[in-house]
Each structure stands twice: as structure tokens, then as C-alpha cells.
Amino acid sequence: QKVYNAEELNFEIEEIKVCSEAEVEIKTKDFIKPFDLEKTPLLRVEVISLEEDRHIMLFDMHHIISDGVSMAILTKEFSELYEGKELEELKVQYKDYSAWQLKKKESEEFKSQEEYWLKEFGGEIPVLNLPTDYTRPKVKDFKGGSINFALDKEITEGLRKVARETGSTMYMVLLSNINVLLSKYSGQEDIIVGSPIAGRNHIDLENIIGMFVNTLAIRSTVNSELSFKDYLKSIKDKALKAYENQDYQFEELVDNVNINKDLSRNPLFDVMFVLQNMEEAKIEVEKLTFRPYVSNNNVEKFDITMNAVEGNEEIYFSLSYAT
Description:
Blueprint lengths: L12 E5 L3 H11 L11 E9 L2 E8 L6 H15 L11 H11 L3 H13 L23 E8 L1 H14 L3 H17 L3 E8 L16 E8 L6 H17 L5 H7 L14 E7 L5 E3 L2 E3 L13 E7 L4 E8 L1
Parallel strand pairs: 1-2, 7-10
Antiparallel strand pairs: 2-3, 4-11, 5-6, 8-9, 10-11
Helix pairs in contact: 5-6, 6-7
């Protein structure tokens, strides 16, 4: 690891004035660019002044240094500093976590987790073939579009009832539904869907900015002879076992299983499912309100990413797809 001091970083915040919302979209698109991983910092910040009392602050961070929780930490700590508060000293740094993770690879627990995942992905690994409008490009181009919709109060309550009756979580209920849908579209029974997991399983990691997220590839057989509740029970078991073995990194799994390296696809799975609880990062500071600025960057890393957010009465979906 190379750890730089703040003085060594060439970091400046650029301020830009614009006259309209349309200009903001253009500036946002120009702002997001690839990073060179050999050059620090892997973060850029820009402030767009739209009106005297309205500004948009843009962060572009390489995923290798941050995750969703990191963005929430950044927003919270920025507003606390703005109020003149002092931040608590961190007990550990990301470099400590990184060293701990490497050491963990020598443990018995790691070997048992590896055994679980290698068994799960033994034999021939399925490739999901969904009917598509266009030919798949030979190399993934990451161009995407998205569709937003919501499940109304009645459907949401129905899903919550199923979850209560079966002792399942909403994640398990929705994943089961997505798998059944993918099975119907593809005519395949062996389905793999990826899901991120926060990976911050120690209290000292709660306030550290960094990439902690791991990906769980959950493989199941959608047997059309099973009732939905029986299939949900099998997904519940799969999800619980995946959580128990969550420290084994997805990259390790990809390196250690027998898959055809295909530049047109993501390794192991082509569909990602993410469920989040509704926590709007709206922060009030004296005379100031911070809230997220929604911008669509038209990037899709997989064939489909299904993002669900559970609100009080409805479930909101953003389905993004490779165009």
C-alpha cells in the first residue's frame, strides 16, 4: 500500500456558474470521466452555482475507494464540518481493514467459506440467455437505459404478508419473484443473480470511507413443479447460507471456478438485484438544506440491474438495462 499525506495530493475544487438546469445536465456529463488508478486522488469535486441560494456539488469517485455507505458518510461529515463540529478520530483506517482481510485468508474460517462457494459453483455454470432485440456486442460497452415504476400499496402489503407468513425478508421474496420471471423469459431452471452486501461487519468500520461491498452470487433451481412458497423456502436457505459465507470475495470465486472468459458478459451472472431501505439523505444545517441531486448517467454494468427501494407503503423500482 502507498499512503499519501494530504499535502502530497493535487486536489482542487472547481466552481462553475451556469444559467439553467439544462446546462447542469451537460456539465454533469462532462464532469464524469475515467480515472487513472496510478494517479492520486481518485476523487474529483466540482461546485455548480445555479442561483444565489442553490448550488450543486458533484462528487466523482472511483468505486475502488468508495461504496454507497461511503457516500452517506461523506454527506453527513461534510454537513457536520460545515456546522463547525469536530469529527471523531477513527479507531482504524482502511489500510488496517485491508491488512486484516489479507490475514483472514490464512484462517480456517476462510477455507470453510471457500469450500462452500466452490461447491455451490461446481459443475457446469449456466449462462442466462434472455430474448433480446439486438445482437450482444463482442465486448461489453456499458451503455444503458432505465425504466422506473412502483409497486402500489396493495401489492406491497401482499408481499409483506407472504414475508411474514414464511419468516422471510422482503429481499428473499423479491429475489424469488425475479428468479421466476428470468426462468420464464429464458426457459432455463438454473438461475444465478448477483446481490451486493455491505461487508461492514464490525462497529469500527461503520464510519470509514472505502470499498467494503462484496457481491454474493446466489444460484438456485426454479423447479416449475414446486409451489411458490416452497421455492421461496429454498431461496431463504440459499440467502442465509450466502450471508454466513459473505467474507469470501467475489473476485476470488471468479478466479477459482471453471468459467469461460467472455468479454461480452459479466463473470458468473448477468442480472444484479439490489434492495435498499428508504433513507433519504436530507440534512438541515443553519440556513442550508442538503439533498441528493438525481442524475441519470446511462451506464449499465450488467444486462439488467434491478434496484428496489422499500418505502413505508410502496416499493420503488429502477430497472436499468444494457441498451
